[in-house]
Amino acid sequence: MNQLNKLAAAILIAAMSGAAAAKLPPPTPEQAAAQTAKKAAADAQAAKDKEALLASMDALNTRWRTQAKAKGWKANPPTPVAAPAAAAVTVPAVALKPAGKS
Predict the structure, then answer these.
(1) If you average pLDDT over every residue of the chain, what do you get?
(2) Taking the domains of the chain in order of start, what are their residue ranges?
(3) Which of 78, 75, 56 lies closest to 65, judged by CA?
(4) pTM here?
């Protein structure tokens, strides 16, 4: 019976994967414009949230460091962090041939 259940599950998964591969029609120009506007609004909100988070973190850091001095705690200087590389993944300038091929 266990083999039958596995076979039935495999057939069900195979049948569902065919339905999932169906293509949707391309969006209309109005839908594309709405998606672009929605993405721009989301990006603007994300930038605003990021700035608010950074300001909050700076305020918390400043408050903690002033309290540390007042209470006699040891406060090490902040660790400098390098900016992330703009393009972490690069394409090689020369295309390499597979081994064994000439």
Answers:
(1) 82
(2) 29-67
(3) 75
(4) 0.50
Q: Check residue 86 and report its DSSP letter.
A: S
Predicted confidence band of residue 94 (pLDDT cuts 50, 70, 90) = low
- The terminus-to-terminus CA distance of the chain in angstroms comes to 54
Q: Which DSSP state fits 94?
A: S
Mention every residue, 6+ apart, whose C-beta is less than 8 A from residue 27.
Answer: 35
Please state the three-class secondary structure of the chain as a single string. Answer: CHHHHHHHHHHHHHHHHHHHCCCCCCCCHHHHHHHHHHHHHHHHHHHHHHHHHHHHHHHHHHHHHHHHHHHCCCCCCCCCCCCCCCCCCCCCCCCCCCCCCC
Q: Please name the amino acid found at residue 94.
A: V
